[in-house]
Write a structure and sequence with these properties.
325 residues, alpha/beta, 11 helices
């Protein structure tokens, strides 16, 4: 069998990679030519392999360090690395700042330009930028309907009231269609998420719940929502990097936020895959590791990164096609 070099690993499509990592209290290094993370168990050190060919992004949390050699191999394989605090927040330092995480994008002079050129063709037109935002929100609604009705969720104990969900999504679809500006669209996005929280609470019989600001929630569901959303942000950052789209070219979450496009991309899967799992795990008493594993399984099962990439590609090309000659 021929040997592969780290740069050869980029030939594996990011949309087909299965792994997201959130690591704490460990060292990431190169050992025997492989990228591994090392944990201490008493007087012993335990080494765990990171399959970089099958990894999209890595979040390095509390008590972690990484060697220059490991960063070199990760960059060659096209793995995004984020530096964050416990549970994915807060921000420490970065060259690409997104949603309280420091994303280090792999350096490459050969990123695709087709989708960036299409994106900037329409991005400076307010009406077309709104059209792109509407397209993303419509895709979000479609993904919500598909994932919340999935048999796997029902089998896990998240048997949502289908009629109530359809009513919520139908109203949001009408509001998206009639939105006159981004502010109205953002308001409707928040309204739907709030209604979905209520629907999830009723579905699993969670009891009283109020969504707290990041890092301020003390109940399990709030903590899991914060944690899980950062996994979605990791996929969003990966999707943007794969397509060569700068994170600052947002269509909905503000032109003044450098990471706004990652918010836009993460919207496609956050409520669809993370929200129900947060309440399921909270009710079961899962720890963070169990919750994270379930989220990653849900994101992989729903092919969320594929969905993000395909949606951004379609939005870029379709909206650019509306630009007047």
């Amino acid at each position: 069998m021929d040997d592969f070099t780290p740069s050869d690993l980029k030939t594996i499509l990011h949309s087909k990679r299965a792994n997201l990592y959130h690591l704490e209290h460990c060292r990431v290094l190169v050992n025997g030519g492989r990228v591994e993370y090392v944990t201490d168990a008493g007087k012993r050190s335990l080494y765990w392999n990171i399959p970089i060919a099958n990894t999209t992004s890595i979040l390095l949390g509390t008590g972690t360090s990484i060697t220059q050699a490991a960063m070199r191999e990760l960059a060659k394989a096209g793995v995004l690395v984020g530096f964050c605090g416990g549970g994915g927040t807060p921000l420490f330092t970065a060259n690409e700042v997104d949603v309280d995480v420091a994303w280090m994008s792999p350096q490459s002079e050969y990123r695709p330009t087709e989708y960036l050129q299409a994106w900037v063709r329409f991005w400076f037109d307010d009406d077309l930028r709104l059209a792109a935002a509407k397209a993303i929100q419509h895709a979000r609604v479609d993904q919500l309907r598909k994932q919340w009705s999935h048999r796997h969720l029902r089998d896990a104990g998240f048997a949502v009231d289908a009629a109530r969900l359809d009513e919520l999504l139908a109203r949001t679809t009408r509001q998206i269609d009639t939105a006159q500006d981004g502010t109205f669209l953002l308001t409707e996005e928040a309204r739907l998420t709030k209604a979905l929280f209520k629907l999830a609470v009723d579905t699993v019989k969670y009891g009283d719940f109020t969504r707290a600001k990041r890092g301020s929630g003390t109940d399990p569901a709030n903590r899991f929502l914060d944690h899980g959303n950062y996994l979605a942000y990791g996929l969003g950052a990966t999707a943007c990097w794969v397509l060569g789209l700068p994170h600052g070219l947002a269509v909905l979450h503000g032109k003044t936020r450098r990471g706004g496009l990652v918010f836009d991309a993460a919207d496609l899967v956050k409520d669809a895959s993370i929200l129900p799992q947060a309440f399921l795990s909270a009710m079961r008493g899962d720890d963070e590791q169990q919750f994270r594993r379930n989220c990653i399984e849900a994101l992989t099962r729903s092919e969320s990164l594929d969905f993000m990439i395909d949606t951004l590609k379609d939005v870029a090309l379709d909206t650019a096609g509306k630009v007047a000659p």
